[in-house]
Design brief:
208 residues, mainly alpha, flat
C-alpha cells in the first residue's frame, strides 16, 4: 500500500468497522474486539494492495453479513436466557430465514472463482435441507424455510448450468459438506437454546 489514498481508505474502513462491531455484546467486544479490528485492517490492506476492482467492497459485504449473523446469534442467545416469547419468535426468524438469505447475498455478491461460488452455494443448499428438517420438527417457519431452500437450489443449478462439467468437476463435495456444518452447527445451537431454555426455566420454577 504505497499511496496515501490507499492508507486513508484502510483507516476509514477500520474506523467504520469498529462502529459496526458495536452490534456485538460488550463482553464479546472486550474479549475479541481488538483482534477482530486488527484482522480487518490486515484484510483491508490486502484488498487495497491487490488493486482488484471491488476487492474492498467485497470485503465489506462479507464483513457486514458476518457481523449481522454472528452478533444477532450472540444477542439472541443472551436474551433467550432472560426469557421472552417475542424474542424467541424473532430468533426463529433470524436463524431459519435471515441467516440463509444473508449468506446467499454474501456468496452472490463476492467476486470469487466460479467453482468456489458453486461450492459455497452447495454448502448453503445442504444447510437449507437440514433446516427444513429442523423447522418441521419444531413446527416453526416451515413454508419460509422451504421457499429459501428452493431459491438456493435454483441458484446452484443455474451456476452448474453456466459452468459446465469441466469446472464443476473441481468442486469438492467434502469441503462443501464441511462448510455446511460450519453454518448449521451454530444455528442449531441457538435454536436449541431458544427451544429448550424456556422449558428448563419452567421446570425450575415448578420445582421451586
Amino acid at each position: 500500500m504505497n499511496d496515501g489514498r490507499g492508507r486513508l481508505r484502510v483507516e476509514w474502513s477500520v474506523r467504520a468497522y469498529r462502529v459496526l462491531c458495536l452490534a456485538y455484546p460488550r463482553r464479546f467486544r472486550d474479549a475479541f474486539g481488538r483482534d477482530m479490528a486488527l484482522d480487518f485492517a490486515r484484510f483491508c490492506r490486502d484488498a487495497v494492495d491487490s488493486r482488484r476492482r471491488f476487492a474492498l467492497t467485497a470485503l465489506w459485504i462479507g464483513s457486514i453479513v458476518d457481523v449481522a449473523v454472528n452478533a444477532g446469534a450472540l444477542r439472541m442467545a443472551k436474551y433467550t436466557e432472560r426469557g421472552g416469547g417475542q424474542i424467541g419468535a424473532a430468533a426463529y426468524s433470524l436463524m431459519l430465514i435471515a441467516v440463509p438469505l444473508l449468506l446467499l447475498a454474501k456468496i452472490v455478491g463476492q467476486p470469487v472463482p466460479a467453482n468456489l461460488q458453486v461450492q459455497r452455494l452447495t454448502a448453503l443448499a445442504v444447510h437449507c435441507a437440514l433446516m427444513i428438517l429442523v423447522a418441521a420438527s419444531l413446527g416453526r417457519r416451515v413454508p419460509a424455510t422451504l421457499g429459501i431452500a428452493v431459491v438456493v437450489a435454483t441458484a446452484v443449478f443455474v451456476d452448474l448450468a453456466r459452468l459446465g462439467l469441466k469446472l464443476t468437476a473441481t468442486v469438492s463435495v467434502s469441503v462443501a459438506l464441511f462448510d455446511a456444518l460450519r453454518i448449521s452447527v451454530p444455528v442449531l445451537v441457538v435454536l436449541m437454546l431458544v427451544t429448550f431454555a424456556p422449558v428448563r426455566r419452567a421446570e425450575h420454577a415448578s420445582g421451586a
